Amino acid sequence: MAQENKLQVGPSPHVRAELGTSRMMLDVIIALIPVTVAAAVLFRWETLRVPLLCVATCIITELIFNLCQKKPNSLNDFSAVITGLILAFSVPPTLPSFACVIGSVVAVGIGKMIFGGLGSNIFNPAMVGRAFLMICFGQMMTTWNAPAVNNAAGIYATTKATPLAAAKFIESDEKKALQEVSKAEYEKSLEVRSGQQAVINDLFLGRVGGSLGETSGLAILIGGVYLLLRKTISYQIPLGMIGSILIIAGVGYYISPQNVMHPLGQLLAGGAMFGAFFIATDPVSSPLSSKGRWMFGIGLGTLVMVIRIFSGYPEGVMFAVLIMNAVAPLLDRWTVAKPLGAKTK
């Protein structure tokens, strides 16, 4: 009797067989090592409390949900670890421990497990947790501290505005004075509207205030290139997002340099780089087709710049990701691939 061949289809993400979900997640963990090292150097090792606490809480939360729903163990895919790390690197290094626990429970419990687990969630779980923290603990989530490398004592207790926040909430007299600065001088100094200077070199190396994992553009770039070389992520989303940010910021800067930060500053400041490589490329909540990914990335970059320039918020990556997550199924419908051998009108 001939052996019957059975095709087993599981939930998304559907990837190449040689990849596998566990290997993809391990690649992301490896890619986050430079970001972790940069955070330890910039904010000292005490800040590792946040990622350790977030990861542990995410693992425990997923385990409890599996036990309550009588589902098999799903921890071996490392998705809970990734959710905890992404959430941890998206919050301030001084976020209180209880807030880390609450955000992690919401991220895994509401952002993923309540939809059915990995592959069934609509939104990026880490961004769901971060959005909840922003709603409940807005002041804690917007309290930034200067990196310890900025002072001789090595203590990161000095509160400083992020470059985006400083550029957003400019006082009227400072704005008037800044309008008198020529475009060439503005390009040279990158005057931030609170009176600080956000030098591109500082933004690239991470010597500015911000979330735990978003300050060092160099560390993020190293991790992102590793993911691209390993083909763990596709290039369309990060390239589309980064390209649209640079183009829109460039146009805005050319028209009104006193109101729009330098394009490189827009890219390196805030969570744009981290979001492009580590958040937006989530295979579950992003489109599957190549055209859909291009549209997804360009839409993300456009929304980020619209929020940064026209809204009352200095940063827009989290909102842009959640909005585009909701649009991703529609993009898949619009850009559905033609089956091999099919005839279309």
Key features of this structure:
globular, 345 residues, 17 helices, mainly alpha
Secondary structure elements and pairings:
Layout: H1 21-31, H2 33-43, H3 49-68, H4 79-88, H5 97-109, H6 125-136, H7 138-141, H8 163-168, H9 172-179, H10 183-189, H11 200-205, H12 217-229, H13 236-255, H14 263-268, H15 272-279, H16 290-310, H17 317-334
Helix pairs in contact: 1-4, 1-12, 2-12, 3-4, 3-5, 4-5, 4-6, 5-6, 6-17, 12-15, 13-15, 13-16, 16-17
Characterization of the model:
By secondary structure, the chain is mainly α. The protein folds into 2 domains: 21-141, no CATH class; 165-333, no CATH class. The chain has helices at 21-31, 33-43, 49-68, 79-88, 97-109, 125-136, 138-141, 163-168, 172-179, 183-189, 200-205, 217-229, 236-255, 263-268, 272-279, 290-310, 317-334. It starts with 20 loop residues before the first helix and ends in an 11-residue tail after the last helix.
Average pLDDT value? 81
Backbone structural class: mainly alpha
Question: How many beta-strand elements?
Answer: 0
- Low-pLDDT residue spans: 152-158, 171-198
Number of helices: 17
Shape: globular
Question: What is the straight-line distance between the termini?
Answer: 44 Å
Major sheet:
none
How large is the share of residues in beta strands? Answer: under 5%
Supply the number of structural domains: 2
- Work out the helicity level: 55-70%
